[in-house]
């Protein structure tokens, strides 16, 4: 028998670094919002109507620390970056009111929704395109007590020093309180959940050897490198 009464060794708890602390934030679930900046909606061939938010999930163990190298994934030839702001929850529930939503946030961070774009675009399930190993790099989280609630500020991604994505958090179609309120009608949100809030325009492909640096005003940066495809 494995330790702690399990028949096999229990998986390690997924967690994220906390800025300026040795303590860590345990990750329970990863939710993502699709098409939440007008310019990105347009570049993906959609219109700018304020349709209901598109939600999907990534596996909890897809989180990757800043400073890591992530493998170029299998079954894709068009591996894309999507820079996003991350919300980390300290509490939750069903049917959270917009007016109460910010009270459930522990902190914020920078994240990447890495995407197999050619898989996403050929009609196959988004799970295959979005929810693969190492698909959710995240920088250290910063608590609300230190950075406040973030509703505006520059969001930027560079690849090998060249700016690829640049926008402002205030251009989110669905704002942070609305995201939490809407998501809580579908799932019971809980402490440890993180939410990626959507990417601005400028998404594009990366290759092995590329270095990605994501920044959001007031938050810790995120840096990852792209490695080779698994053998």
Short structural summary:
This is Fumarylacetoacetate hydrolase family protein. Helix content is 13%, strand content 33%.
Describe this structure in words.
Helix content is 13%, strand content 33%. It is α+β, with helices and mostly antiparallel strands. It has one domain (15-227): Fumarylacetoacetate hydrolase, domain 2, CATH 3.90.850.10. A hairpin with a 5-residue loop joins strand 17 and strand 18. The two termini are 32 Å apart. The mean pLDDT is 94.
- In CATH terms, what is the fold-level topology? Fumarylacetoacetate hydrolase, domain 2
Mean pLDDT: 94
> In one word, what is the shape?
globular
Number of discrete helical segments: 6
Spell out the CATH superfamily.
Fumarylacetoacetase-like, C-terminal domain
Q: How would a textbook summarize the main sheet?
A: 6 strands, mixed
Strand order of the largest sheet: 4-3-15-8-9-12
The secondary structure category is alpha+beta
CATH class: Alpha Beta
**Helix fraction by DSSP (H/I, runs of at least 4):** 10-25%
List the helices and strands in order. Answer: EEEHEEEEEHEEHHEEHEEHEEEE
Distance between the termini: 32 Å
The assigned CATH architecture is Alpha-Beta Complex
Number of domains: 1
**Low-pLDDT ranges:** none
Beta strand %: 25-35%
> What's the total count of β strands?
18
């Amino acid at each position: 028998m494995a330790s702690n009464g399990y028949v096999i060794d229990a998986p390690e708890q997924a967690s994220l670094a906390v800025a300026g602390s040795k303590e860590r934030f345990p990750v329970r679930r990863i939710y993502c919002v699709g098409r939440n900046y007008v310019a990105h909606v347009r570049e993906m061939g959609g219109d700018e109507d304020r349709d209901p938010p598109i939600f999907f999930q990534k596996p909890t163990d897809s989180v990757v620390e800043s400073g890591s190298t992530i493998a170029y994934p299998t079954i894709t030839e068009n591996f894309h970056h999507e820079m996003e702001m991350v919300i980390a929850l300290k509490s939750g529930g069903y049917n959270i009111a917009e007016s109460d939503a910010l009270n459930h946030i522990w902190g914020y961070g920078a994240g990447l929704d890495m995407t197999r774009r050619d898989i996403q675009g050929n009609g196959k399930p988004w799970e295959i395109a979005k929810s693969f190993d190492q698909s959710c790099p995240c920088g250290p989280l910063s608590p609300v007590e230190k950075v406040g609630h973030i509703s505006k500020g520059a969001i930027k991604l560079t690849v090998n020093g060249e700016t690829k994505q640049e926008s402002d958090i205030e251009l989110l179609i669905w704002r942070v309180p609305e995201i939490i309120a809407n998501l809580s009608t579908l799932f019971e949100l809980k402490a440890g959940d993180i939410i990626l809030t959507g990417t601005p325009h400028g998404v594009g492909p990366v290759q092995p050897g590329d270095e990605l640096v994501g920044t959001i005003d007031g938050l810790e940066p995120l840096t990852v490198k792209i490695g080779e495809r698994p053998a």
